[in-house]
Structure formats: structure tokens, C-alpha cells
Amino acid sequence: MPSATTAHIVAYRPEHQPAFQALNEEWITHYFQLEETDHRQLRAPQQHILDPGGHIFMALFGDEPVGACALLYETATSYELAKMAVSPHAQGLGIGRLLGEAAIAQARALRAQHLELLSNRRLTTALALYRRLGFVEAPLAPTAYQRADIRMVLNL
Fold it and tell me: Which residues of 25-44 are buried (b: 16+ CB within 10 A; e: fewer)?
């Protein structure tokens, strides 16, 4: 059984794409519907996340991917935390926190001043994690996601 102490965070590699896609599709379709932006980013993360200046982190238990998280480039000083997913069998073990901490550390290393995320108020466990990581609610502007009803920011 994985735990936060036995899982490790690694930078995304092309062979992670099927797991990155499956982990995210699993939680999104459990609560919502996949949207066009999801399809683009999950099917071609190199083109739609990494090439524009973003980063993806994978949580591995041994060689098994059990979680994922992306940093989407917005500007030289602003990134979006997105596509955070943890496998149901690994939820509640602190893996989401490890992923969030890795993304925040990367944003700081990139000298970002601002990290934001879009979510949905139904995702109470995720929102609690984001608050523990230091995110606070901010006004929500129009977004590409129909499911987004909350925006949170972290000033770095």
C-alpha cells in the first residue's frame, strides 16, 4: 500500500502520458464531464503543457504512477496549478500534498510571484488541501472550464 513516505515525486517523462491521462480522466468523469481543454492537455501534454513552459509531476509508488499534477505557464511570473489527480487507492495518504508542494517549489524556483488554480466547490477534500498549502479564494474570472466555480491564489 502506498503512502506519502513511500511515494516519490518525479518529473514527467513521455512514458507517463497514459497514466497522466487515466488518473485525470478518472476523477474528472467521476464528478464532471471531460471538456475540450482536458482532452487537449491529457492527450498531448508535451504540446499543450510542457512546450509552452509548463511542468508536470508524477507521484510514483515503486514504478506505479499513483498521482499527477501540472504547472501551466501563464506569464513569466504566474503559473496555474492544474490536473492534480491521485488514484483512489492512494487517496488520503498525503500524496496530493507532496504533489502540491513539488509544484509550489518549482514555481518558486522559476521565480513565479503568483500561483493560481481553478476548481469546484464540490471537491471539498481538494479545496481543504489547497487551503493547507496556503491558497486563498479570489474572484473568479471567465474560464475555459464550465465546471470551475472557484479560483484560488497563492502569492509566492
Answer: eebbeeebeeeeebeebbee
Residues counted in the chain:
156
The CATH number of whichever domain residue 12 belongs to comes to 3.40.630.30
| pTM reported for the whole predicted model | 0.93
Phi then psi for residue 11, to 5 deg, are -70, 145
Per residue in 37-84, pLDDT (tens digit) is 999 999 999 999 999 999 999 999 988 999 999 999 999 999 999 999
How many angstroms separate the CA atoms of 101 and 107, rounded?
10
Question: Is 156 part of any domain?
Answer: no
